[in-house]
Amino acid sequence: MQWPTLATVWLALADACEHTSFFLMPEAVGAWLDVFGPRLQPSIVLFRDKERTVVGAAVLVRRTVRKGPFAIRRIYLNTAGEDDADSACVEFNGLLSRPGYERMVARALRTHIDREPWDELVAAGLLDGSSLRGLHQAFADAHAVSQTTRDYYISLDEVRQSGNDFVDLLAARERTRHRQNVRNYSAFGDLVLDEATTTAEALEFLAQLARLHQSTWISRGAPGSFASPAFCDYHRNLIERCFPLGWIQLLRLRAGTTTIGYQYSFLFEGRSYFYQCGYDYEVGEKTAPGVLMHTFAIRHAAQLGLNEYDFLAGDVEYKRRLATSSREMHWMSWRAPSLKMRSFQLVRDAKHALDGLRRR
């Protein structure tokens, strides 16, 4: 079956699974398949129960990557496996499954994977829950490697219940910084937050965001996310698909006619996922455009009636300063119980031990 046909089945599973997520919606998966599918040639696997009812699904990408002398046959779960420079960075990922079928679907995935030689299964951005537990059980004989990071977010329900402005809930130091930012930028004019209202305007905001983003990162000696044509194509495709559904938000903060910056977020099931940004650091002195932009965006999200403002994964200082809560997100890999992967692990352990000795 082609994706347009499979998308209906995928949607039913995504709506029913434990952690419903924008990143698992068929529109987001379809945009990724359009851009990266021809290059990566992913397979889409459906899992059925005894009555032949579809109870689970997965997108699988197989690639061979070089790690020193080892050629690692790697399998990626769902929309992942691009080159690092192109990565769309999937989060809130999971093994799509109807509730109660997580372990069965995970075992079926293991059976399917075992039909061909493999060395490593990689699953990015998993939350704790039945999906992750099912995968751990199905791959219990494999060597599990986990990188855990915090996903910081703001409970907008709590902000509204407090009866205070979001800024009033911050630490005294942050409130002082906010007032200084407002005062410095207000020298250019009144501060105004604009939201794109059409797909065409959203694409224009994205183009301006990308310009500022690239200017900043190139000045720091890094290529920037929008240096990748595939990354740009993916997000234009995503906006064209999802903006009409109300799932994409592009914001611009300006002081009078002077642009301070842009912000790109996903809106889904009452949650705002902050995804990307671009700021003009040449406007004003002793200013923090990112923190100011977030403050205006958080207020706006609360006014829209959203439940959460999510910074997505990453333990970064400004997220810790602004967030009210956090949760763990896991980047998992399971290495096959083979002589090759045991040797690979021994070499890695030896290298890490040697590096540690050198540092000491």
Q: What is the number of beta strands? A: 12
User: What is the CATH level 1 assignment of the largest domain?
Assistant: Alpha Beta
Report helical residue fraction: 40-55%
Uncertain segments of ≥5 residues (pLDDT<50)? none
> What shape does the CA trace take?
globular
- β-strand percent reads 25-35%
The CATH topology name of the largest domain reads: Aminopeptidase
Termini gap:
57 Å
Q: Give me the strand/helix succession.
A: HHEEEEHEHEHHEHHEEEHEHEH
Supply the helix-strand structural class.
Answer: alpha+beta
Give your account of this protein's structure.
By secondary structure, the chain is an alpha+beta fold. It folds into two domains: 164 residues, Aminopeptidase (3-Layer(aba) Sandwich); 173 residues, 3-Layer(aba) Sandwich (Aminopeptidase), CATH 3.40.630. Helix content is 41%, strand content 28%. The chain contains eleven helices and twelve strands. Strands 1, 2, 3, 4, 5, 6, 7, 8, 9, 10, 11 and 12 form a twelve-stranded mixed beta sheet that branches. It is globular, with a radius of gyration of 22 Å.
Write the layout of secondary structure elements.
Blueprint (H helix, E strand, L loop, with lengths): L2 H14 L9 H15 L2 E6 L5 E14 L2 E8 L18 E2 L4 H12 L6 E8 L2 H9 L4 E13 H7 L9 H15 L4 E5 L3 H21 L9 H14 L5 E8 L2 E11 L2 E9 L9 H15 L4 E6 L3 H6 L2 E11 L3 H21 L1
Parallel strand pairs: 3-5, 10-11
Antiparallel strand pairs: 1-2, 2-3, 2-4, 5-12, 6-11, 6-12, 7-8, 8-9, 9-10
Helix pairs in contact: 2-8, 3-4
Short recap of the structure:
This protein is α+β, with helices and mostly antiparallel strands and 360 residues long. 41% of the residues lie in helices and 28% in strands.
